[in-house]
Each structure stands twice: as C-alpha cells, then as structure tokens.
Amino acid sequence: MAHDVNQSEKDIAAQVRSALVARISSERYELWISPETHWQWNEGTLTLTFESEFACQLVRRMLGKELASVLYTVVGPHAELKLEVCEVKAVTPLPQITSKVPMPKSDDPATLKFPIPAMTQESTGRESTGRDFWGRFISGDCNQLAWTTANMVVSEPGRMTPVLLHGPCGVGKTHLISAIAQQLRSHCRMRRVVHMTSEQFTNDFTEAIKGGGLPMFRRKYRDVEALIIDDVHFLIGKKATLGEFKHTVDNLLRMGKQVILTADRSLNDLQALGSDVVGRLRGGLVSPLMPIDEKTRSALLQRDIDEASIKIPAEVVKQISGRTVGDGRVLQGIVKRLIAVASQAKQGLSWEQCWNSVYDLVQATQPVVRLCDIERVVCEVFGLAPTSLQSSSKTRTIAQPRMLAMFLARKYTPAAYKEIGDYFGNRRHSTVISAERTVEEWLRDNTSLGDERGLTVRDAIRHVESHLQVG
Question: Domain check: are 167 and 281 in the same one?
C-alpha cells in the first residue's frame, strides 16, 4: 500500500511539471528550473527544493503565478505550493527559505484548463507558439549563405562556432536562430539549448549580481550544449555584462559548444563590443542576411496568402512583391491588410483592390535615395576615396564602380540621365545610358569584377542595396 501512495505522489509531481512545461515551453522551463531542483508531493503540498536561495527567489518571481495556476488545474483549489532551499554544508549554513505562493481564485483567468501531455525527456523542438520555424524559413539569394550556415550547424553542432548572423531589421535573423534552436533540440536531441535575447541575458546578469547568485547564473549559461543570443549589439556600452559575456563565450568555445549570435550590423561595426569579443567572432563563421530580394519576397507573400486561404492571382502577388521593400515585417503587414480586405469580398481580389488596400503601407516604407547616398555607399563598398566617382579617372578600379553607381541611380532615384551625368563628373547623358546597358549585360552574364575579393557584379550591387536598405 505504501508503494501505491509513493507512486501516486510521484505521478502528481510529474503531472504538474509536465503541465508547466506545456504552458511555458521547455526552453523557458530549462532556463529557470535546474535539473537539480527536487519535486515532491506530500499530503496536499507540492514542494520544490532548490540548491540556492538565488534559484528559489528567481523561480518564485519568474514562474510563481504559472506554478500556482498549473497546480490548481491539476490538483484543485486545496493544494499548497512551497518553494524552499535545501540545507548545504558551509561555515555559515544558508537559512531555509520557505515561501508560500497563494493559489488563484476559481474565477481567475489564469485557471483556464490546458492539456497536460505525458512528461518526456526529449524536447519537442518547437517554441511555445508551436510554429515550425525550420520548415517555414524560405531561402533565396539574399540569405543563402546564412541558410547554408544553419544547415552546417544542425548537421554538425560545434564545428562552426562561434557563428554570427548579421543584417538589417526584418531580414529573418530571429526566425533563423529560432529554427536552429528547434533543430538542435529535435533533430540533434540536445536538452540544454539556451536561446534568448541580449536584453534577457543582461537582466539575468543584473539580477544575479543583486541577489548574490553569480554561481547559479554561470552554471545556467555555461553548462549548456548550445548558446543562442539574439541582438548582441544590445550589449554595447554595458561593461560588466560584456565582461561576463566574453568569459561565458570563452568557456563554451573551449569545450567545443555551439555559440550563435545575431546583430543588426556587420562585424566591422561591432568594434564597441571590444577587441576580445570581435576577435573571437572573426575566428568563427560570419554570415550576412541581405534585405529580402524580390523573388524571396514573392515566395513569402505567396506562402502567407495561401495559408490564409485568400484567392489572389499569382501575377498580382508578384507585382506587389516587386514594389515593396526587403523587410519581412512589412510583408506581414501587407498580408494582414489583404486578409482584412478579402473578408469583405465575395470573390477573388483583383489587382486594383489589392494595390489600393496596401498602397499606403508600401509608400510609407519606401526609402528616399539620393545621388549622394549612392555615391557614398559605392565608395565604401569598393574602398574608394569619397570623390573618386566624380573624377576624370578612367582606370578600371574607378570606372566600374562609377558605372554601377549610374545604374543604381537610374534604378532608385527619379534623376534623369543628364542630371546623373552632371553629378558624376559632368559626363554626357549618352555615357549614363551606355553605363546602364553595360551593367545590365554584366548582370545577365554574372560577370566578375576582377578584383582580389572575387566579387561578381551581382554581389557588389547586393552589398550596395543592403546599405541603402533597398532592393
């Protein structure tokens, strides 16, 4: 009989733990509750015993309400929840902290029931939203290197480390690292994959310092199989956090663990992180994500439109994607607008209906590009002096970038041929026409620039467009 009681107690503790994982996601559970935490159900009380006061207080603050709500759902209103610290041998023993978390009332929205799956040792590999990030990621010319990097990381974790994925907002960095985290958990069977933002890392570090819980903090971030941090540029200017971050990354790299970071700027623009951090990133794999190109935009729009069951001709989708910018968030806004319009239409939407419904969104996001902007960015990409393109020089190292600048000026500014020719060294309008046709031929033939970097004309234009936030 005693055996039956003990088994029942274990079942209740396991059910509560399973329900908590289902509610907050396995990622968040593993982040705040360590494997050393002891769960015990005895005579109507669920007791969680932690190895340190810091860990106990952290769970009470971050998960107290969720724990109470889950316990109410699984057991009922008469259950009691205790969070306490185990006694440890030390010169001055830590006092036992027992904190009771009040149970929610029956009419509390937090007591809504949710499914309680069986507890498994393997993570589902999905975020709390249940979305399949890996399957939904659409690769194209704009993100091919980053997508290849992701596949290499998943196929052989720890080989390519550290990894830095960088690019402007809305190009899919967060989506891609969420997909990698999914695959590391589900495909690679990794249990300790920490995936969070730099702001969360900073907040955890600050709380650890205030609460005297640095050992717990370091165990949480260094005893992992993969560390994935989003928006690492957020750490710039935070000297103490940067120091702890550097030591954490060093520790993981020494053990051959996978480290993946994202930033909204290139590695050269992250010098404020410090030479130590930047040096370590240079020794890893740096992969850019460019603004989403037209072909990929079209695929993204078509996928979301199909999922929403909206009837829009493929040609209309292509036209809309050709007029938008390479920002995934803008595309999401366009799809939501189309869904709203389609709900009022009895038949499929026409081009006029679609364009009239999203015109203001598209126009509001179009960047204003000036001739001086194109000149500045082209000179930066090719490493030229600021006034080189306006000079009389006809050397290949100057002439090629100048023709590219003229081509981009025609594509992204309203300037006429004569105005462009005047700006780039008082050249005739026929020179600009010739430059435009030459660059178009280079693009058709995928011509190389012939410099030491081995860039093609298409690569160079993509770099310039990325800096201009167009394309």
Answer: yes
